[in-house]
Structures are given as C-alpha cells and as structure tokens.
C-alpha cells in the first residue's frame, strides 16, 4: 500500500481481535502529515497526531470497543475511553516494538502489550500483575495476533506466518491451539468473534479488492464483503456492544 500524496510508503498489517488491534509497520520514509480517521459508524472520529497508528479495545469494561492510538516516536499508548476516568497515556516497550492489546487477566477491560520482532517475544502488561507475562513465540517475520481462542474470557496470543498464509493460535487450553491456513498471498490477517460465541475467530482483508473474508465457527456467520478504500487499515471491535465483532477502517488523510 502506498500513500504518494503525503510521502508515506508503508507495508502495513493490522490484526484485530474483539478487543484488540495489532499492527506491524515498515515505514519509509515519512509519516502521515495529519491525524487519521476512525470509521466505526457515525460520526467519524479523528484522534491522535500525525504519525500515530490505530489501536482499539474496551478500555473501561463497558462492553463496547473504544479507540486509541500508539505513538511510535515516544512508545506511548493513548487510550480514549467512553468514561473519561479510564482514558490513559502509557509508555511501554522499546523502539521497534509492535503494539498489541487484549484482556490478559479476564477482568473485562482491555490492557496493552508489545511484541518485539527482534526476539519474537510478547510482553503482556495486565491490570493484575500476576497475569503479566513474557512469552517467546513464532519465527522471524511472523506477525503477532491476539484473541480469546478458547472462550475462557482471557486474551491469548498467536502469530500469522505470511510465507504460508497460516494462523498459529496458542490457547490456554491446548486442545484449542490450532494452525489454520486461510487466504491468498498479500492478504492482511484480522481476528474477531464474528458469531458472538465468546471465542475469537480469524479472517483476512484482501487489499487488492478491499474485500473482507470472515471465517466463523458457525458457518452461517462466515462472510465476504467489500468495505472502504484502497489504503484503509482494517480495525475490528464490538462497536455497539451486541457481543459480536464488527469491522471498521482507519484512514490516513490523503
């Protein structure tokens, strides 16, 4: 994906769970000149500064997914909660880390973390310290993903391997750990609870056609649909609190 209008030349892969959005960014040479726009319904929300990248999560535990941004220049997460007292700015990680989010301790609120590609390590920062973890997973070049793969109420980790188009899901209960091949070369992985059964499923965005392919546990909820414009970044969340993950987009100004 290229943004010639503002000098951004990026390879972007953004992976979202019902509470979490993960991004892998390879930027050359400059960042967007203006803050981006979140399209999750109406009204459209503009949030953050130039150079920020989107994250989503249920920061205040009200059952609805809210927005936020990650600022690579300062390694800062800015969380915009529906209830202002839960809005926060948190510094975490090292330069080059990839932001991730999830409910690591099962308290109903989304926390933050980072994935360090240089060591293939996940650093999970939970509200309750006993649930904070450091976990090595995957191969060089893998993209981090998160989701509640086994429906236990806590977000687990995984990776997407672009070379084989494979999702590797690492569940707390081993019987729910899986390796699933989905999509075509060049697709962008996404995750969410498409059918509302409490377990996170997988999907892909095909940037060439702006088409989303959602693979639900219950086949009647599997979908393929077109949304957005070329260059949009996929975000997913339960925007309306109905228990099912919906799809939105984040758009850099052009």
Task: Walk me through this protein's architecture.
This protein is mostly beta strands and 254 residues long. It is 0% helix and 46% strand. The strands form 6 sheets. The chain has a 4-stranded antiparallel sheet, with no helix packed on it. Strands 6-7-8-9 form a 4-stranded antiparallel sheet, with no helix packed on it. It has a 4-stranded antiparallel sheet with strand order 10-11-12-13, with no helix packed on it. The N terminus is likely disordered.
What coarse outline follows from CA principal-axis ratios? globular
For the largest beta-sheet, the strand count, sense and barrel status come to: 4 strands, antiparallel
Query: What is the SS-derived class?
Result: mainly beta
Terminal Cα span: 13 Å
Q: What order do the helices and strands follow?
A: EEEEEEEEEEEEEEEEEEEEEEE
Question: How many E strands?
Answer: 23
What strand order characterises the main sheet?
5-4-23-22
The stretches of 5 or more residues where confidence is low (pLDDT under 50) are 1-31
- The fraction of residues assigned to DSSP E strands is over 45%
Mean pLDDT: 88
Helical content, roughly? Answer: under 10%
Question: Rounded to an integer, what's the Rg over CA atoms?
Answer: 16 Å
């Amino acid at each position: 994906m290229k943004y010639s209008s503002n000098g951004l030349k990026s390879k972007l892969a953004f992976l979202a769970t019902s509470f979490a959005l993960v991004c892998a960014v390879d930027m050359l040479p400059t960042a967007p000149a203006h803050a981006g726009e979140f399209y999750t319904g109406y009204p459209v929300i503009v949030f953050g500064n130039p150079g920020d990248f989107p994250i989503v999560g249920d920061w205040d535990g009200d059952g609805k997914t809210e927005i936020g941004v990650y600022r690579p220049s300062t390694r800062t997460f800015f969380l915009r909660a529906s209830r202002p007292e839960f809005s926060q700015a948190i510094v975490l990680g090292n330069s080059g880390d990839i932001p991730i989010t999830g409910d690591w301790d099962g308290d109903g609120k989304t926390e933050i973390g980072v994935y360090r590609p240089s060591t293939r390590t996940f650093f999970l920062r939970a509200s309750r310290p006993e649930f904070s973890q450091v976990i090595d997973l995957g191969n060089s070049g893998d993209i981090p993903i998160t989701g509640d793969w086994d429906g236990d109420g806590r977000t687990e980790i995984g990776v997407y391997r672009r070379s084989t188009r494979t999702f590797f899901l690492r569940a707390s209960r081993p019987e729910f750990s899986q390796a699933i091949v989905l999509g075509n070369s060049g697709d962008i992985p996404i995750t969410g609870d498409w059918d509302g059964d409490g377990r996170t499923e997988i999907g892909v965005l095909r940037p060439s056609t702006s088409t989303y392919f959602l693979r639900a546990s219950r086949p009647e909820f599997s979908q393929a649909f077109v949304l957005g414009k070329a260059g949009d970044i996929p975000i997913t969340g339960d925007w309306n609190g109905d228990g099912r993950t919906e799809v939105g987009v984040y758009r850099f100004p052009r």
